[in-house]
Specification:
11 strands; 4-stranded antiparallel sheet; 5-stranded parallel sheet; 39% helix
Length: 233
């Protein structure tokens, strides 16, 4: 996908460093996007609640309400527009904290323009719902309703974060197939992550606790040296 392909998105950027905000705004503007800039978390929240955006880009270290709090607050208000977090901290713990807050992806500073554009394009492809062909996906007594974005196991509703939901959806669309960590990185997060992190294993464990721990049969299985498989036998 060419770097300068027109995206035509309405984007809210929350960034307190004017130089960084101006560079990002300029780059995104050159690809046909309208960018609104908020210098702090409280301003960003008010803008998000009073206007409609296609995408949010939040720095984590914002004055007032930080990026994590901002993301959590928007998710509680039932705003599920994609969120890309910017962070100077690239450890697994910090990445997971951002994703747990409801973010869809993260980007570690400093980053290249090409990587920023790749993340945005991947986010918008994933949230467009382009590969959802059926209303429901099932494995044993596990069911995922694509239209309602509802997950149940044995009739009990299972609460998932947006990342856990995408991971489960990918597993259910590829039943009884061995899925590598790279497959999950590319299809759940959209672009290559640093393979030195164990973010995939962390999220598989999160998912297991929610859909397998209290139920039989266990559905997510480890294939040593290869990845994971979703199966009911």
């Amino acid at each position: 996908m060419p770097l300068r392909q027109k995206l035509n998105l309405n984007i809210l950027l929350a960034e307190d460093e004017p130089a960084i905000a101006n560079v990002i705004s300029k780059v995104l503007g050159e690809t046909g996007n309208a960018v609104s800039i908020a210098p702090d978390g409280n301003t960003a929240l008010q803008m998000a609640l009073s206007h409609t955006y296609d995408l949010y880009i939040f720095d984590i270290m914002l004055p007032g309400m930080n990026g994590l709090e901002l993301c959590r607050t928007l998710r509680k208000s039932k705003d599920h527009k994609p969120v890309l977090l910017l962070t100077a901290l690239g450890s697994t713990e910090n990445i997971v904290a951002g994703l747990d807050a409801g973010a869809d992806d993260y980007l570690v500073k400093p980053f290249k323009v090409a990587e920023l554009m790749a993340r945005i394009k991947a986010l918008m492809r994933r949230t467009a719902g382009g590969f959802a062909e059926e209303n429901k996906l099932r494995m044993a007594d596990l069911e995922l309703d694509l239209e309602a974005r509802l997950v149940t196991r044995a009739g009990n509703e299972v609460s998932l974060t947006s990342t856990e939901y995408r991971m489960l959806e990918y597993f259910l669309k590829n039943p009884r197939k061995v899925i590598s960590r790279m497959d999950l990185l590319e299809n759940v997060w959209g672009v290559d992550f640093n393979m030195a992190t164990n973010v995939v294993d962390v999220y598989v464990n999160y998912l297991r606790k929610k859909i397998d721990k209290e139920y039989e049969p266990k559905l997510i299985h480890t294939v040593i040296g290869m990845g994971y498989i979703l199966k009911d036998t």
